[in-house]
Here is the input.
Amino acid sequence: MQTSEYDIIIIGGGPGGYAAALYAVRAGLRTLVLEMFSAGGQMAETDKIDNYPGFDSGIEGFDLAERMAKGAENFGAETVFAEVTSVDFSKTPKIIKTRDTVYSALAVVIATGAAPRRLDIEGEEMLRNRGVAYCASCDGMFYKDKPVAVIGSGNTAAGDALLLANICSKVYFVHRHDAPHAEQTYLEILKNTPNVEFFPNSETASFIYENSDSNTGTNTSSGKNLKGIIINDTVSGASREILCDGVFVAVGRIPNTKLFANQLDLTAQGYITAEENTKTNIPGVFAAGDVRTKPVRQIITAAADGAVAAKFAEEYIFSARNPHS
Here is the structure.
């Protein structure tokens, strides 16, 4: 097995990871980004991004991802596409293993992100970016003056419903309980918003889309764009059809932290415990982007985290090399 040494290793090649790489390499640090699939993470799967500053006509997620990667690599950052199989943060340098190589670094930035939790309903993946979305602030404007549904029950779902109510003609708020499990301040506003309609005790049973049977939601051909959803009342068992152009799924996220569970402090939901300084409970290990505890998870906030993490990593590396300075 090969061995390779760096000043700083960034696990994850999304906006947080490549922002950290850019700032780290410009600080003169030998920098490596380890990414399992391709640059950009979830960002690369987004058709168009309209809320990242500097692109007045928007930009495709894949294009933005490539630009971020090239920006860091132009200054000397390296990228290796490989899955991290284990880490050891108990000593310095930190050890990171892939299938073929053992890497070591004085500092590590974890930027592995958090994936939106899916409904696991037939056709969901096919309809992504064609009616099914997971980020209201990212994709809400695509449905301006159109009817949409929000599926979820917590603060994220309620916040999405409020945001979309200012953009869309109608918002159907579908939740599994008698009332959403959101803060009362959200609920009071939503109840007084005329274009928001609640569907309590309801579960989404299937999607209705082009070339599908509207009575069952069953696909009869290839399917193209979302036309609506079929929901089931969990009390009466009755089914109902809701016609809409978009569905925003807000049933939680799954942080990619399984690899670090025995070494880093995690919240009950699995996020890495780290404040705005991105420092974790282990000196020299930092968490940037959606993977850490934070109130807002957007491309711009992930990139900002990356810059912050690189700054504190630089300070840590200097102290490690100069313990008596």
About this structure: The CA atoms of residues 208 and 216 lie 8 Å apart. The longest strand covers residues 2-11. The domain at 118-250 is CATH 3.50.50.60 (FAD/NAD(P)-binding domain).
